[in-house]
Amino acid sequence: MLEQPNNPLHGKTLERILNELVDYHGWDQMAYHVRVNCFINNPSIKSSLTFLRKTPWARKKVEDLYIRMLDDLKR
Questions:
Q1: What are the CB-based long-range contacts (under 8 Å, 24+) for 64-68?
Q2: How many degrees, rounded to 5, is the angle at CA 16 between CA 35 and CA 21?
Q3: Do residues 69 and 8 lie in contact, with contact meaning Cβ atoms separated by under 8 Å?
Q4: What does the pLDDT look like over 20-56, one tens digit per residue?
Q5: How many CB atoms lie within 10 A of CB 34?
Q6: What is the four-CA torsion angle of 8, 15, 51, 33, rounded to 10 degrees?
Q7: Which of 5, 6, 26, 56 is the most buried (most CB within 10 A)?
């Protein structure tokens, strides 16, 4: 297995990333940062995971938001 010590996403599932983001930001802020309907209309982890797994550009935005959240928490 390839070691990735500097990759903050390494070993994290999309579900875990999403749960941590929702705990930190809440759905309203998630919708503000990543403008997708699954965060705006009747949001849930399950519907968001389904959408993000099929939509690479949205998943990338969520992963980038997660990395920014980790940076904020380090400060």
A1: 65/21, 65/25, 65/30, 65/33, 65/34, 66/8, 66/9, 66/12, 66/17, 66/20, 66/21, 67/8, 67/9
A2: 40
A3: no
A4: 999 999 999 999 999 999 999 999 999 999 999 999 9
A5: 22
A6: -50
A7: 26
Q: How far apart are CA 32 and CA 66, in angstroms?
A: 14
Residue type, 5: P
Lookup: tokens for 58: 């949205």
Label residue 7 by pLDDT band (50, 70, 90).
confident
Contact status, residue 49 vs residue 18, Cβ threshold 8 Å: yes
Structure tokens at 38: 């699954």
Give the pLDDT score at 5.
65
Confidence of residue 75 (pLDDT cuts 50, 70, 90): confident
For residues 21 and 33, is the Cβ–Cβ distance under 8 A? no
